[in-house]
Design goal:
Radius of gyration: 28 Å
Largest sheet: 4 strands, antiparallel
Membrane topology: Single-pass membrane protein
Order of helices and strands: HHHEHHEEHEEEEEEEE
Number of domains: 2
Strand content: 15-25%
Subcellular location: Cell membrane; Membrane
Oligomer: single chain
Shape: elongated
Protein name: Regulator of SigK
Organism: Nocardioides aquaticus
Helix content: 25-40%
Strand order of the largest sheet: 4-5-6-9
Keywords: Cell membrane, Membrane, Transcription, Transcription regulation, Transmembrane, Transmembrane helix
Distance between the termini: 76 Å
């Protein structure tokens, strides 16, 4: 016979049949613990429902279903003798709200890169829409302006391309074939605003795509210098890359 306490999760998501729902609602009127558990589950479900959902691709669906097939099933549940309290089942029942809360937190934490939410009562997994990547947002902006330049002062065929969106107030720099620096040095990015060079982040790879830190709306140019590892508050060398931007 199903432990009526174990029906709280299914009740919260409206997954019970009529007979089970009637049975559980009679129990719910007398059990404060189950009422609190149902309220918590319904609140968590409402928060998850507020996220933007999208249909997963066929490849993603196939991968999720393949992963599910690798999950080891739980052992069969053996009912304890009459009159004996099944402590494991009782603890598991009380832990379920905590586990569901942790799962909800994991979904929120994963939103930055996209996440798959699998629901045992649903036919297909749902995908929580990832927040736009700031770098990609600049590159795809409708007002994006592109400024490219070769770097003759740098050995080889190094290039630097800057894409700026005034509407977003941000800029991205893309470099190719920059010389490899020793571990004691780093490429530092700068925004030139009102004639002043302001630190805008570090670049460690020779071929990089980096979102500059700071407001680039009125920047006059983007500079790259070689600085000691960790960066400097002010440029200590001449720029190895200097990309003028259009000003209004």
């Amino acid at each position: 016979m199903t432990d009526v306490h174990a029906l709280s999760g299914a009740y919260a998501i409206d997954a019970l049949d009529d007979a089970e729902r009637a049975q559980f609602e009679q129990h719910l009127a007398l059990c404060g613990e189950c009422r609190a558990e149902v309220a918590g589950l319904q609140e968590a479900g409402a928060e998850l429902a507020a996220t933007t959902m999208a249909t997963p691709s066929a490849a993603l669906r196939a991968r999720v279903l393949a992963d599910v097939a690798q999950v080891r099933p739980l052992p069969p549940v053996v009912a304890p003798p009459a009159g004996v309290t099944d402590l494991a089942a009782h603890r598991s029942r009380r832990r379920r709200p905590l586990l569901l809360a942790a799962a909800a937190a994991a979904v929120v934490a994963a939103v930055g890169v996209g996440a798959v939410v699998t629901q045992p009562w649903a036919d297909e997994p749902a995908v929580v829409q990832a927040l736009p990547d700031p770098t990609e947002a600049v590159l795809a902006a409708s007002d994006a302006e592109t400024h490219a330049t070769d770097l003759p002062e740098v050995e080889g065929s190094a290039t630097a391309t800057v894409v700026r969106s005034r509407e977003l107030g941000q800029a991205v720099i893309m470099t190719q074939n920059m010389p490899v620096l020793p571990r004691s040095e780093v490429y530092q990015l700068w925004l030139r605003v009102d004639g002043d060079m302001k630190p805008a982040g570090l670049m460690t790879a020779t071929d990089s795509t980096v979102l500059l830190e700071g407001d680039a709306t009125d920047a006059e140019a983007i500079g790259v210098t070689v600085e000691p590892a960790g960066g400097s508050p002010r440029p200590t060398t001449q720029p190895v890359a200097y990309v003028p931007l259009e000003t209004v």
